[in-house]
Amino acid sequence: MLMEKVVKKYNTKGDIESVIIRPPWFYGPHQPKRQNRFYNMIKNGSVPIVGDGQNKRSMACTLNICQALIKSAIIENSNGKIFWIADKKPYTFHEIISTIREVMVKEFKIKCIDDHIQLPSFISEIAYYFDKTIQWTGFYNQEIHVLSEMNKTIACSVIMAKKEINYNPNIDLYEGTVLSLKSQLGEFI
């Protein structure tokens, strides 16, 4: 947020041209190690579902993000704008887990335990207060922060990016997971 404010300040003064891209939870080729950890939790049947799992999440395949970066860089009227970049639609948490598991089994013959850890929704509420307390002291714990959000819908709209930079997120969760696993298969066998 602070970085965005600095960029906007210099853009408004005319010192720089800029476009801010906001991808949510991202996955795909060259994904961060935390996503590999999530895939392994799905594989091992140890992924937690907090609440009913119907909460939705926007996700963005790294290749969709690259498309948005290129388009925003070459379309002149994008200067000074901010775009949310994600796949075409948000996915329920159940859909995310079942899609990733399906790709592992069908496309790569990876043995997966078809299970998860079911936690009541109030666990996220408790984690939220722990997260706020930890951050108030100047620290950050990724696991507690993520747990505090696991029962919430966190979704964005890509309508503005579609309209203004002709963004077309043509890779969905299934295809993006295939590409992700192809790029790092050794992590999951």
What is the topological layout?
Layout: H1 2-12, E1 20-22, E2 25-27, H2 33-43, E3 48-50, E4 56-57, E5 59-61, H3 62-74, E6 82-84, E7 91-92, H4 93-108, E8 117-119, H5 122-136, H6 142-149, H7 159-165, H8 173-183
Parallel strand pairs: 1-6, 2-5, 3-8
Antiparallel strand pairs: 4-7
Helix pairs in contact: 4-8, 5-6
What would your notes on this structure say?
It contains eight helices and eight strands. The protein has a single domain (16-119, 153-182), classed as Rossmann fold, CATH 3.40.50.720. It is globular. By secondary structure, it is mainly alpha-helical. It has a two-stranded parallel sheet. The chain has a two-stranded parallel sheet with strand order 2-5. The protein has a two-stranded parallel sheet with strand order 3-8. 49% of the residues lie in helices and 12% in strands. It has helices spanning 2-12, 33-43, 62-74, 93-108, 122-136, 142-149, 159-165, 173-183; strands at residues 20-22, 25-27, 48-50, 56-57, 59-61, 82-84, 91-92, 117-119.
